[in-house]
Each structure stands twice: as C-alpha cells, then as structure tokens.
Specification:
Blueprint (H helix, E strand, L loop, with lengths): L4 E11 L3 E2 L2 E2 H11 L5 E5 L23 E8 L1 H14 L4 E9 L17 E15 L3 E2 L2 E2 H11 L6 E4 L2 E3 L5 E3 L10 E8 L1 H14 L4 E13 L16
Antiparallel strand pairs: 1-5, 1-6, 2-3, 4-5, 7-13, 7-14, 8-9, 10-13, 11-12
Length: 245
C-alpha cells in the first residue's frame, strides 16, 4: 500500500483507439498495473486535443471521435516506478510517458464493512384468510380515492399488509365494461385490494371495509400460507407478521 512521503507520479498520454495485442492500450496498461500491485490508477478522457501528428481530435468530427486523447495516471514509490517503467516504455509505442516527483500527504481508505452472520432461513406455515376487495378506480370516500382510504383504514386496524392491483379490462354486476382508453383521462378501471391475515383480525377489518363500499364486492377465502422468513443479522428482530398478497 502506498504510504506518506516522497513518491513518483506517472502520467501516460495516449489515444483511445491505440491497440496493444488486439486490446485497447489503456486497458492493457491497467491490467499490467493491477498485476504488479500498483495502489491505484485513473484514466480520464479529454474533450479534444492534438499531439505530435498535428491532428486536432474532437467529438465534433465523427471520423476523429474514436481517436480522442486519454490520460492515465498513477502514483507509486520511486522504487516501484523504476520497476514498471521498462515494460511501460515498450507498451507505449504511440504516446507520451511523463514522470514527476511528488509528495503523498495523506493516504486514507475505508475498510469494507463485513455483514453480520445470519442464521438459517425459517419456514413458517399455517392457516389464514384471504380477503379480496373489488371496486372501481373512480370510487371515492370522503373526497379521496376509495382504494387509498381502505388501505389507510387497514393500517389503522393493524392489518399486516395489503396490495392494490389495477386492472386493464373488466366488468362487474352491472355489465359495464371498464377498459383503459388512452383518449380519455377520466378512467374507471377495475381495482382489487388483496389482504392475507389471521381470521380474528380479518373479520373486523372486513366489516370496516364493508361500511366504506357503496358499489363493489368483498370475497373472503380460506388459504394455507407458507412463508420463508429471511434470517436477520444479529441484534435485529425478525418481523413475524404475515406478508401482503
């Protein structure tokens, strides 16, 4: 690892499309530096420039856009740079290598946090109730969308979860087809809310929802639930509530 004190900064100027053994030269140089244990290197791409050939390279000219200049830089100890330079000298057949004396003032690197160990996943199964509530997207309750009001009410009743589904086509007891139409902004598409919960909590929730619906359908079914509970890191409590469906 690079340490504080005197060091060498190496800057290599080359073109983006310069090749080395069928690969871009800058990629070959980076691979070489990683293999040799260099602390780090950066490649920056210029907007425009020209070199010894006297040709101005700019993205404004399509034929020259892939020939833009690149700048590859890294900082290492003088001993390490002396070790690398012969190979870099051979690799850069069209470009410029510059070496400068520099001083490393600070070297800081955050340590990667290690994830806390996890316990094996837990499988939970049992009996529950599935409630499905059908309505129209345009249905309202006290000035707000009915589906939104129902979800808020379910949260107040401590229901573990609810999912709102929006249909693209459907019809109800009145036989009116509800269909998405890009030409009309006032849509009344079918909406369904699904809830999975224990029977003792779902029955009062169904009664509360029934009072809010003027035109719709509530269906309650028996279901078997199988839940794989992801293990939590040490110190975190697992959520034992039933998932939304």
């Amino acid at each position: 690892m690079l340490s504080k004190g005197t060091a060498k900064k190496v800057t290599i100027y080359l073109n983006e499309d310069t090749q080395h053994h069928l690969s871009p030269l800058y990629e070959s140089i980076l691979t070489f530096l990683v293999h040799k244990g260099v602390s780090g290197a950066t490649v920056t791409r210029a907007l425009a420039g020209f070199g010894a050939h006297g040709v101005v390279h700019t993205p404004k000219i399509e034929v020259l856009a892939d020939h833009l200049p690149l700048r590859l830089e890294f900082i290492e100890s003088a001993q390490k740079v002396d070790e690398l330079l012969p190979t870099l000298y051979d690799m850069v057949t069209d470009g410029l290598i510059e070496v400068q004396d520099t001083t490393v003032v600070k070297v800081a690197m955050k340590e990667k946090s290690r994830p806390a160990p996890r316990a094996p996943h837990e499988r939970r199964a049992g009996k529950a109730k599935l409630m499905r509530i059908f309505m129209g997207e345009a249905d309202r309750w006290n000035g707000e969308p009915l589906y939104d009001a129902i979800v808020k009410r379910l949260r107040m009743l401590d229901i573990s979860g609810a999912t709102v589904y929006r249909g693209i086509l459907g019809y109800g007891a009145k036989g009116h087809t509800r269909k998405q139409n890009l030409l009309h902004t006032n849509r009344d598409l079918p909406v369904m809310i699904a809830v999975v919960e224990t029977e003792e909590k779902l029955i009062p929730a169904a009664e509360a929802v029934e009072e809010m619906i003027q035109d719709g359908l509530i269906v309650v079914s028996d279901v078997d639930i199988v839940r794989l509970v992801h293990a939590q890191p040490a110190g975190e409590a697992a959520d034992a509530k039933l998932p939304a469906r």
